[in-house]
Write a structure and sequence with these properties.
alpha+beta, 4-stranded mixed β-sheet, 22% helix
Length: 126
């Protein structure tokens, strides 16, 4: 399985695809873009939207490390017009609203925090 396919399936992307994966000195960087004209979801109400109104600036999310290197997801989210909520930023399936870490990383940190001190958890995810 290609790395792009693995990333897409593990993060639950249906309306997005991985355009490139680059290995840098700091770690891996995966660039993500919208897949065709798939419908996006509102970031607040989570309902499907039909219209987009441009894009926001590039945002980065930290994910679980790959081979002892940091892994980042880079994406420029769309601004969408929701009939219920108005103009909002789209919902990304790999992270919650306002968070800059993915669901997988947040869950792994929470599980380790139950058994280790916060300092040890922070050191293991540096």
């Amino acid at each position: 399985m290609r790395m792009e396919t693995y990333i897409r399936k593990s993060l639950g992307m249906k309306a997005h695809w991985v355009t490139e994966v680059v290995e840098t000195e700091e770690g891996w960087v995966a660039r993500v873009d919208r897949l065709g004209n798939r419908r996006l979801r509102c970031g607040k109400g989570r309902g499907e939207v039909k219209m987009t109104r441009g894009r926001r600036l590039e945002r980065c999310w930290r994910d679980l490390s790959i081979r002892d290197k940091a892994f980042w997801i880079v994406y420029r989210p769309f601004r969408v017009f929701c009939p219920r909520c108005g103009l909002r930023v789209e919902c990304v399936p790999w992270a919650k609203r306002w968070e800059r870490v993915t669901h997988a990383l947040a869950q792994a940190m929470a599980l380790l925090a139950r058994k280790l001190s916060f300092k040890e958890v922070a050191e293991s995810f540096e």
